[in-house]
Amino acid sequence: MTYSKIVGTGSYLPEKVLTNFDLEKMVETTNEWIVERTGIRNRHIAAEHEDAVTMAEEAGRAALKAAGLTPADIGMIIVASTTPSMVFPSTACLLQERFGIAGCPAFDLNASACAGFMYGFSIADQFIRTGAIKTALVIGSEVMSRVVDWKDRSTCVLFGDGAGAVVLGASKEPGVVSTHLHADGTHKDVLYLPLGNKKSPNIESVKMLGNQLFKLAVNSLGDLCDETLAANNLQKSDIDWLIPHQANMRIIQAMAKKLDLPLERVVITLDEQGNTSSASIPLALDKAVRDGQIKRGQMLIMEGFGGGLAWGSALVKY
Ligand code: COA
User: Are residues 118 and 218 in the same domain?
Assistant: First the structure.
């Protein structure tokens, strides 16, 4: 039996930091409101010369280095991004060209928005389990600052830019124990981002019914925790770490409570990074790995939720 295993993680955050106090000067908001309602204090903003590809390259190279591998070892590249610079070539193909590894499959996932990384992670896991490939590079890379309306206080305070990467390698033991993916298109109007075209040339900005989305996120992610444990006959007490999508501190707290986990066992980057959409889970994972918090052999639940709606989780023995 072949499984996949996390063999390296990496991340990249742009240098520029936008604080809640900066936002106070841009829209009618306060640091107190943002911290109390969301938990966010700072977010990183990409420089002019940066985009989803440049950030993915930084994160990807860091993950390969951590794994002790080179680009030539990669058997598949998956980039989850809702903010690519081009519809095609995909960010993954542009990255493959930078890595100089023409030939291996490379593609983007954008349909699942903030859940994109969980979709990419699950797909890579399936390819490795079947023996089709031995190593996959899965990246979430987002320039959310380019798709938010900086005059809309209800959304612009929430998002940030960055990239996170994971190298999955073949293993005789799990590794990735199980992945669980879901979607429900009936909630398409709760969170969406229209694309520009000839009729309407400018890409629009993220539209969100925050309050409805909040309730849907808590309910769907709660059910997903139950499903992930039940599928593996595990108890809440078997879980060492929760690595959640970083959208709102109150959603994260609800998930920690659902799993009976103290917040010390939940990886939180939201305060310093905001919601980086599909990059948030690998960014959080990499931080906790590099800080020495997550240790080999520990059991992790990763879970993401976003536009579509789409949501997904993974149970991982690190
Ligand atoms: N500063 C100050 N006031 C603000 C504000 C801001 N940045 N943004 C909104 N408000 C106001 C609203 O206008 C509203 O005012 P009103 O009562 O006079 O109409 C009030 O604050 C409450 O707005 P509401 O949207 O009900 O707040 P909320 O408690 O639901 O928090 C979110 C808003 C977006 C933080 C929250 O709904 C959320 O995190 N939703 C889920 C996001 C999510 O899950 N994303 C996952 C996929 S990416």
Answer: no
